[in-house]
Amino acid sequence: MKKIILAFDSFKGSVSSEEIAVALDRAIRKDFPGITVRTFRIADGGEGTTEALCSSLNASRTTCWAHDALMRPITATYAIAEDGRTALIEMAAAAGLSLLNGRERNPLHTTTYGVGEIVKDALSKGCREMILGLGGSATNDAGTGMLSALGVKFFTAEGEEISPSGGRLSAISSIDTSLLLPELSETSFRILSDVDNPFCGREGAAYIFAPQKGAGGKEVVLLDNGLHRYGELILKTTGTDIFHLPGAGAAGGMGGGLLPFLRAELLPGSKTILEILHFREAIKGASLILTGEGKIDRQTVRGKALKGIVDIAREENVPVAALCGAVADTEELNGAGFAAIFSVQSSPVTWKRAMRRDIVLGNLSRTARQIIRLMFYKEWTNPGNRS
Fold this sequence. Notes:
single chain, 387 residues, alpha/beta, 6-stranded mixed beta sheet, 5-stranded parallel beta sheet, 15 helices, 20% strand
């Protein structure tokens, strides 16, 4: 019995991972009804993490009042697992880039305060285990906004209290944790990072990600300087060195910035999520894994969901083919373990049309079918083998 694994991340702005799984499952079974198809909604700690984990943990969605990255009131969604103790939270639900329009994006001014408000709501409902997905952030405040919502206070050298944001990190001279919510002493955090970038520097949060959030060249330098100064303060105050910790640069430094103040461990998001989904057991004996996301490039191998899939698949000797809308750095990606990489675009097309849901699903289905036909050509040409 042939077995195909479908494990797609979302194509952001177009289709969800669930929509992709349904469409490709239908397309493959149409040609090969005898093939076993297993589908997984995957994520790397960024957007889509809650969706990927809800079914596995039998979680129910809930909402609360919070503030977005510009401190405007919003209704934020997260989930609570069946055990009633585990909350599934995406920081992007409150501090996500997708909540801001282009003119509003500037990581000098944005804050993760709303993420702390979600955590507070989960604490009030009895949750004492938090799975916090990082990714898709509009921020570069090293998690100071979230900590502020949880009771931590930040002060200038003159003793003035600061409302934290990316542009104010350099002004923080002292940190007071005496009013940190007492419930946090018995609460553990699994912080899922979608990248492995360090806290600051040329490969860190500001230089690599802040331009995507609206920062210009001078602003990137200011933000990186702020991260350096804040990291030094953390080291001096707590003894914790977060500068070179893989993943510390995730979500504008939030990956590293939370560790000294919470009972937390920073984990590779894709690997951890795949473990929760029991992905390794599911792919044993599979003929092929089809995976993909909207764009694939060298950043894909720096902690993204697809890299986690490839790492496990190589150990189980299952080939992985990636389908995407845009592809770059193919040789590097092949070297990382992908058996093949395909752009699903069939002809020149406008960006607006390329992002249309029906176009994306049609392109993905067509490409997947052609790959399966090639792999099982003998069965395809012999109708007696197709049932």
